Amino acid sequence: MRVPAASIVFDDSDIAEALKLIESSLRSGQLTLGPHGRQFEEAFAARCGRQHAVAVSSGTSAIEIVLRILGVEGREVIVPDNTFFATAAAVQHAGGIPVFADAARDTLAISVDDVISRITPKTAGVVIVHIGGIVSPELPRLEAECRARGIFLLCDAAHAHGATLDRRDASDWGVASTYSFYPTKVMTSGEGGMIVTDDANIAETARIFRDQGKAGFTSNFHTHLGANWRLSDVHAAIGIVQLRRLDDFIARRREVAAAYTDAIAREGILELPAAQLTEQSNFYKFVAYLPDGVERAPLKQAMRERFDVGLSGEVYELPLHRQPIFEALAKGAYPRADEVCARQICLPVSARMTPDDAKYVVESLAQIIPAGVLA
What we know:
By secondary structure, the chain is of the alpha/beta class. The chain has two domains: 12-244, Aspartate Aminotransferase, domain 2, CATH 3.40.640; 246-366, Alpha-Beta Complex (Aspartate Aminotransferase, domain 1), CATH 3.90.1150.10. The protein is built from twelve helices and eleven strands. It has helices spanning 12-28, 35-48, 59-70, 85-93, 112-118, 139-149, 200-210, 233-244, 246-267, 296-307, 335-343, 355-366, and strands spanning 52-56, 76-80, 97-101, 123-129, 152-156, 164-165, 168-169, 176-180, 193-197, 286-289, 344-347. It has a seven-stranded mixed beta sheet with strand order 1-9-8-5-4-2-3, with helices on both faces. A hairpin with a 2-residue loop joins strand 6 (164-165) and strand 7 (168-169). The two termini are 33 Å apart.
């Protein structure tokens, strides 16, 4: 495909370095909770500017572990309606009750005003998701509102490796931030996740939870109802190599995003979220809103068949209150989440793309979307 929806970047030196680290694990026999895992944790904590990082098996398990530590059983946790299944499912797996809050169109993030309207005496906390790599300008206000009410704020930063808000790292709010290293992310370890926090108790307890709730690696003395949420040293080795390239990956994605922004402004065919700023987002996704009357599925098909361009998966195409598994939890209407999910498209973006690729994508879109449709 001329412009694929996404692309994982491992150059020859990355592959050689990863294989060298993996070989050392295989020769030592330390395949889990070993030196590569500790190195990955230390490097990631330093990159985020936080005191502790705990490597786990996935971004989903990272959320669940933190929620278990915070004690949400039988209590409500407010989550975005326009997020991935895992954010709400982790609340349920931790014994909590997900409460959906509407979206903010300019940021794609949770609406602070709607969060406030949904807080009750049963509310334990709020999970904000940095959708597409955009850190909402409303995040400091949300943190202040949570603090004033004595409830926690947890940041699901699965999309936000290296993203910032006002020169502060995406992880610099809330009691903790959780990350995913799934292969589609800006950086990957193949599979895996990370908990980042300044709270020593959260970090220490997370290490117990991730290893079947055992008090120590070599014992079978179980103090918590944990699970097998470990990250192998083989995966950590890949993560170490990818983390070293994170700044390079983001720089290339921002170059592509700048080219998209310029080309879209010239063509006048799409609307962009106001908070999707080139100098702050890591551009895990490049999100745009379709004009009224332009349907997403036929557009994606035409881009693929006529122009050899793959548009990325949405974030997200269906809000949680419309998912069969969560329909019973819906409370009232979620008009912004419905709109954001229905009208968005995600243009292809990766560290392999060039600004010329971005220009080609927009020129191709302009041959499908009628001129002046935004007027």
